[in-house]
Amino acid sequence: MTTPISGQPLDLLLITPGGRDAIYQELGEELTAVEPPLWAGLIATYCRLKDHRVAIIDSEAERWGPETVAKKVAELKPRLVGMIVYGHQPSASTQMMTAAGPACRAIKAEAPEVPVIIVGGHVAALPERTLREEAVDFACTGEGPVTVETLLRALGDEVPDVSQVPGIVYWDGGEVRRTPGAPLIEDLDRDLPGSSWDLLPMDRYRAHNWQCFGDLGSRKPYASIYTTLGCPYKCSFCCINAPFGKNGYRFRSPEAVLKEIDILIEKFGVRTFKIVDEMFVLNEKHVTAICEGLIPRNEKLGGALNFWAYARVDTVKPAMLDMLRRAGFRWLALGIESGSKHVRDGAKKALKSEDIVGIVRAIQEAGINVIGNYIFGLPDDDAQSMRETLDLAKELNCEFANFYSAMAYPGSPLYNTAVEKGWELPDAWSGFSQHSYDCKPLATEKASAAEVLAFRDSAFNEYFTNPRYLKMVDQRFGASTSVHIRQMTRHSLRRKLLEPVDAPA
């Protein structure tokens, strides 16, 4: 973190909780990405534009535990602490509560006079519960920037009145009060013109291993930026729109996006990027304008730019692919989800198998790598449909694949259904992590949670040890990458759900 200007009091200290070891087990040491905290950086920018003095502690990147964070809070004495529990993808917010809770308790023990607001996708989905369960003074019901900045101003009044702060729940004596929601920020270029990169430990961020297949030494420096906020789709398992209150899609101008990319290239030497948007390849005009700006930059850098972004099978147009590749997009992630049309339809993901195969092949023929994302344990899944999903994954033979267990994440329609029907959910927030020891996916009518998890873990090994896949990787990226993947598959996740139960004495 950067040190505030000497002699000037700090208004806002934004904290990103860690917990990588609990969330990813041993995978967090080398294989997973360490991503810049998007929303901490955006909230910092918004508040700095309003003349507040701000600092950020990224305890995940710094590998600081709760006690170290709490001592920093006591040392800096900010007027307000913001605990930011947005994940690097929508489904990652809930699992971050595993680290956010202990950090808040440590702060309150070390510096009880400092007010704490907690912000994030999980918090927006369950604000009253979060306030009751965590050691915080306020919980944010929306996306965060307007609420945090208004709260800062209210706390600066001689007699603070937080009842007029939009988008919070708070304690009023022994009662929980909720204020009307804060408005969404509509002018992104003016109010959220990129992250506060100067407040972040930029030397600590690294890309996922797969993004740099063929050149694993290029994982650093690394940055992630956004070009849009929100998503217009309504997939049953997705919780992205919980902090926004509705399905929607807000755009930054291509000029603002390119300006931020230039800062990262020129000031921090970044060549490896993630586009954070839940769905980047969607609006053709928006994508085209950004790519047309990136192409000359990529050419000037000798083709060194390496971007990855999310797309949908039904939004990728073959005519766009050459442009994307020339702009530096080397990877597109596709939410394929299931090999069964029946299961996809039930998850509100209506795609045809032949369309999936056709688009994947078109992307690969354009020289762009594909990450196929698959989910086991969607409500209509059984052993046969999960097998169909794995068989489709092996047929597609994408350059990388993510295998997930279905989770009813707070803020998703699936969570509401699970609560309404009394389905069994994880015992702790860490259980919502795909890679945690206590991971506990949803059961289906025909498969238990343990069966879904066991299938997911075996599918990962079957895919990445498949001779056809390893041969493709060897040809596409070189022998060193196929060796790396063989080493990756030697990591075996411990799963509480799959451990044998001791027989009674």
What does the secondary structure layout of this molecule look like, with pairings?
Layout: E1 12-16, H1 20-24, H2 27-30, H3 38-49, E2 54-58, H4 59-62, H5 66-76, E3 80-84, H6 93-110, E4 116-119, H7 121-125, H8 127-133, E5 138-140, H9 145-155, E6 168-172, E7 175-178, H10 188-191, E8 222-225, E9 228-229, E10 250-251, H11 254-268, E11 272-275, H12 284-300, E12 306-311, H13 318-326, E13 329-337, H14 341-346, H15 353-365, E14 369-376, H16 383-396, E15 400-405, H17 413-421, H18 449-464, H19 467-477, H20 479-488
Parallel strand pairs: 1-2, 1-3, 3-4, 4-5, 8-11, 11-12, 12-13, 13-14, 14-15
Antiparallel strand pairs: 5-6, 6-7, 9-10
Helix pairs in contact: 3-9, 5-6, 11-12, 12-13, 16-18, 19-20
Explain the overall architecture:
40% of the residues lie in helices and 14% in strands. The protein has 2 domains: 12-178, Cobalamin-binding domain (Rossmann fold, 3-Layer(aba) Sandwich); 206-497, tm_1862 like domain (pyruvate-formate lyase- activating enzyme, Alpha-Beta Horseshoe), CATH 3.80.30. 48% of the residues are buried. The chain is built from 20 helices and 15 strands. The strands form 3 sheets. The chain has a 7-stranded mixed beta sheet with strand order 2-1-3-4-5-6-7, with helices on both faces. The N and C termini lie far apart (54 Å). The chain is α/β, with parallel strands linked by helices and 505 residues long.
